[in-house]
């Protein structure tokens, strides 16, 4: 369940052309639409955090937005912290800015946080988000599964899935143009400089994102997580950090201004990293949900991405989604409703007769259908499980015509109930802020990281350190450790 951020080549744009890109007042129709869709976005991204950390992000966001040139900026912009394992930040027309706890974990001070919210505010002030929404309509990204599964058969999958695009799914799949990203970076630098922050925080934040992206590329395939959202929606470039640094230096304030590292780290302490056990966790090839007491295992080489309502699975031979919940009725009717929900009846899917079976003691039923798309024949399969009297879970898979469930046979046969002991053993990963003492080394602290591999690499990436850096007593660093067991 992960976004960075781009700079026009001429640094002088910061003082000239960028200012003309801003609007004075938010469009009231955008404001109303953003307010209407806010609950949906929050739900899809794990819910909104509340409490001191959320209030802190809101306060920094309003402080930075005050310099955006937007009328009543400190009142019209809203900043929401999301309980999501996706490293992401995004903005929508109407003044709503979202940032995930996972992205915050990459940051090392308040100035970096200010730059990210400033960058997203810049997208709104320059009307980038509205243009992005219009582009998504033209591209016809249709339906949750249209977004999730579309690349199996290319753009033609839009013929099959005609449910109507979910707004938040569009946000994750459609990035801004390169020029828009550069412009938003420059606006963010301008805002944070005016707010009293060190403009070089832009470069250090972009460096952090680059490190995380490079590390993710190394570990991908071992932890079975799909590519971070921000890696695709906010593409990084090799010269981006240099450009941000150059623009920051032209402000005359580089190296000066607030960083507020200690204040930021105090807010970050205890934040969840990666999955929230309440939403289920990805560990290697397995997905385990301690509250629902279930587990399944994806095929070797397949990746997963977790959200509040579903788990997305993707690999070389197809894509799938796992979801379900409360339902009273028979499995045949349930499967029919799932198929109808995918197509809204607009596309004919020829489904095979329902086949009943038992998987790990769980009554199950499946049907395999076929549909014609502009890219060829597609097999759509549904495997549903009668978990208890009024709960059903299911996989939907999408594969090339003729393959049916075969690429996912091991996965659909792996769903099982877990024991209370297994459920109780699951612990969240959290940020612990550690004050370096004499004798601490990168390796000794990395050994405390709650991962099975790449411990030292994760530690230095998380803290923006060189691999051979010497730690100084009194220095504060972040560790990812296991939190308390859930009761």
How would you describe this structure to a colleague?
- This protein is of the alpha+beta class and 487 residues long.
- The chain folds into three domains: 11-140 and 168-272, no CATH class; 277-424, Mog1/PsbP, alpha/beta/alpha sandwich (Protein Transport Mog1p, Chain A), CATH 3.40.1000.10; 429-482, Membrane-bound Lytic Murein Transglycosylase D, Chain A (Roll), CATH 3.10.350.
- It is 37% helix and 21% strand.
- It contains 19 helices and 18 strands.
- The protein has helices spanning 17-20, 28-44, 52-65, 73-76, 101-104, 110-125, 128-139, 144-149, 167-173, 178-194, 201-219, 229-233, 240-250, 261-268, 331-343, 409-412, 420-424, 442-446, 455-463; strands at residues 78-82, 89-92, 96-100, 272-273, 281-283, 286-289, 294-297, 303-306, 311-315, 318-326, 350-351, 355-359, 362-373, 376-388, 391-400, 416-417, 429-435, 476-482.
- The strands form four sheets. Strands 8, 9, 10, 11, 12, 13, 14 and 15 form an eight-stranded antiparallel sheet that branches. Strands 5-6-7-16 form a four-stranded antiparallel sheet. A three-stranded mixed sheet has the order 1-3-2, sandwiched between helices.
- A hairpin with a 2-residue loop joins strand 14 and strand 15 (391-400).
- Helix 11 packs antiparallel against helix 13 (240-250).
- The radius of gyration is 23 Å and the shape is globular.
- The two termini are 25 Å apart.
- The model is unreliable at 1-22 and 136-174 (pLDDT under 50).
- InterPro entries: LysM, Mito/Outer_Membr_Metalloprot, Peptidase_M48.
- Pfam families: LysM, Peptidase_M48.
- It comes from Sphingomonas rhizophila.
